[in-house]
Give the backbone structure.
Amino acid sequence: MNPLLARHPGLPLVFDALDRDGEEVRIVGGAVRDWLIGRGVRADIDLATTALPDEVVRRVEAAGLKAVPTGIEHGTVTVIAAGEPFEVTSLREDVETDGRRAKVMFGRDWARDAARRDFTMNALYMRRDGEVVDLVGGQADAEAGHVRFIGDADQRIREDYLRILRLFRFHAAYGRSPLDQAALAAAVRNRDGLANLSRERVRAELMKLLVAPRAAETLREMESAGLLQPVLGGAGDVEVFGRLAVIEATLGLKPDAVRRLGALAVRTLEDAARLKVDLRLSNAEAQRLEDLVGPAATPGMCEKGQRAALYRFGRIKYDDRALIAFARAGAPLDDDGWRALLDQPNRWTPPVFPLNAGAFFARGLPPGPALGAALKRAEELWIERGFPNEPLALVEIVRDAMGLSAS
């Protein structure tokens, strides 16, 4: 019994269409690897087949399924079955590569299809009956947490230089043994190839690496090998990154890729601007990195000061700055002051500023620049006075913001 078929109702339908009449289909890659090592059943299932792309389309449409030619020139058809997408790729081998993309030839040889993949643990197949087919020693490597290139590491990397980053990303996510030294040496020898990669692909791998379980120690390996700076476009602070990862784990916080990137590589606005361009970050991600630059709330602040910071920053900026400041301070994890600071958003919810233009119109202030300035001064007075909501206190704030004396 195939354990993956039971979790994906559409999968038997794909097998029914493709696994017959002289053609075979198998589940391949991450879904097989993750099931073998006890990480459960993945949401995404990839399949490999002996059928050519046109035959895949013909068969699945004849079975009443939908075929989407998402990468048909490289042999990939997305099949929609029972509302689920499955990427089905014809067996292939590389004819020509330039370190970024490959020209492929379709075939029927499972061993050659496995040989063109990156790591042994990613070249595992599973038949419909649940039998695992391992042609490269991937099952033992997956179970040992050993990320190893298939065949010659230099050749695998030169086929696609992104595999340098994938080596570290998979080691951070799945590694339980020391980093493969042959793979590391090949990555160092081929490091110049990183410059040829699209920044979008680099970003995708890096952001996954940053939230992986062994991210901190893996980044240290990259730094020692001289491979971190070419990826970041500048120096990285792996010690602060490591402390932040420990703090997040201690507080039960989910790893956050943008926050971790900021801890690793952002000290100035220039750093944030460079990363936005170099990693093709979204505007929201770039703004969040920019928001890390500046003073954070600290344990030395009184409760009133911490609340003022939380109101001005908002929850995300407050948390990001405070967590990274905690990591940079190197304070003990059980420090009461830092714990109380980080718990402030759970104890107090910032109120909405209760005044508007009407309060100033009532006192004769007309629309215009003076009104905007008075509202801004009023908000600052409201913060300084501890966010009062009593009518008399608000009247006094309006009067003081307009520079009026009490009558």
Q: What stands out?
A: Residues 303-347 form one domain.
